[in-house]
């Protein structure tokens, strides 16, 4: 029999051993029981680490101004109510976001002062206009995100509670896959998204040029705006990834349940299966409604964010290409060009993750219809077949998709449109610059 290395863990182990020995084992092997009981400890520690990670992530987003609500630590109103993390509106969060919104005024003044300084006016007029427009729109976008999330804080808390509640319900419905496995899968995906975004953000911040005060102050101001916008994109990506995994869990439960339909012989099992099938249909309907609410909630912020990403990609790609083709490389510090490249990469990664998660979530929601339709022909029980037909008819009228006010969809096709538009505008700007240089 193995013993844990940590002293505190040894003490817990001995206490558990003492309790188990005092309880009658009905002939079972005590070694097996103790070994099985001790195996739950790593899972408990891992669960606590995951909870700590999620709390830290929440407070980071709260610090950046995109999650002003607070975690409700009060006990559940009813003993039998499901346990899940609850969120409530926070006046302190509104006050904090108000401070952040006010702080955007002074950086805006610094940006305008730099763009109108004698050092910067040496640049060509087109470059000056482009920088002024880009910095102004970045300020407007970041300020709008902070103010919008404050105004709609109660709605954000309701959506967060709905997601937390449905996640708790689905995790309790595991048939063949354990709750820990599903939960760990969701956490691992969230960690991957956060890690990729964190690495690209660190590289981008590290490439900020520190040589000249004017360059440094300008890039610090722009970084302040871009980090807020990036945090909103990250938050939406995490919500979409959670929805995708919830749809996948429902589909896994549904597939496992329908595989057993052909072997059901007695009425009791048939009744239990019908009850479970109806429950899964209700969960899927709730997920579809939450998905639509999430899409509507993020539509307005995403309109500003996607527009900002589009403009920034054009402008920074223009600087990089012009430096390599037309301008002398010595006219701009290497770190300035590197900062442009890393910011383009950061925004490209953020948009790729966002539209990929949105597209995959929509596809996963449609997979439910394929599972139900494929099981109707193999069903042997008429009542179950009738319920499957009802489920199938319901799914025909459900179209889960994520868009920005139906102006453009959030899926992989948006990336192609953005790349094509950036290329077109970049060619126009380059031709204009080359013609101006010749004159």
From TrEMBL:
Any one of the GO CC terms: dendrite
Localisation per UniProt entry: Cell membrane
An example Gene Ontology biological process: chemosensory behavior
Any Pfam family hit: 7tm_7
Top-rank taxon: Eukaryota
InterPro entries named in the record: 7TM_chemorcpt
Membrane topology qualifier: Multi-pass membrane protein
Alphabetized UniProt keyword annotations: Cell membrane, Membrane, Receptor, Transducer, Transmembrane, Transmembrane helix
Annotated function: Gustatory receptor which mediates acceptance or avoidance behavior, depending on its substrates.
Descriptive protein name: Gustatory receptor
Provenance organism: Nasonia vitripennis (Parasitic wasp)
